Amino acid sequence: MNNKNQYLRKGFVERTTKETAIKVELVLDEEGVFQGSSGIGFLDHMLELLIKHSGFKLRLEASGDLGVDAHHTVEDIGLCLGQAFRESLGDKKGIVRYGSLILPMDEALVLCAVDLSGRTGFYSSLNFPTEKIGTFDCQLIQVFWQAFIQEAKITLHLQQLAGENSHHLAEAVFKGIGRILKQAVKVEGDKIPSSKGLL
Questions:
Q1: Quick check: is 82 in a domain?
Q2: Which residues is 52 bridged to in the sheet?
Q3: How many angstroms separate the CA atoms of 42 and 154, rounded?
Q4: How many domains does the chain have?
Q5: Cα–Cα distances in Å, from 72 out to 114, 146, 154, 158?
Q6: Reduced to 3 DSSP states, what percent helix, strand and coil does the chain have, rounded to the nearest 5?
């Protein structure tokens, strides 16, 4: 890794409301390690995939009103993770900025593309064939990424090219986003990658 400040690329966020209590520590340029739990088994599985494929390190402590449903917890983890990601990038000097790929997961195929632009944009054509994956509401996948993007200040495109299994689609999304974030945060120089001089 040619980033002499790699150990400074981290963010810590703590958020407490009447509905949730979340602590997130995110470190870039690490070994793809996820520690902790959201309290939601399926989300933990997706976060583990995201972190494994991004090469980041995530420590998560979370408690929420899961007796109501998982919505508040999923959304607030997304918000905190997005904020920690934005903090970890600092001034964005030298980053690649862009990442994209088409990721297969068995019959599922998803195009993922990201721009660490400083502008919030989420464009998705995901269409899960079932309402739930086990007990997890599929709509919460979009809720999570919308929250993440809101705080990360990035533009993300997800295009579903194929897929008949909701679990496979979800895996393709989280693995794919992990991969493109890994591409986009890589440091190649010391300049801001924008003609405006600011991201």
A1: yes
A2: none
A3: 25
A4: 1
A5: 25, 13, 22, 23
A6: 35, 30, 35
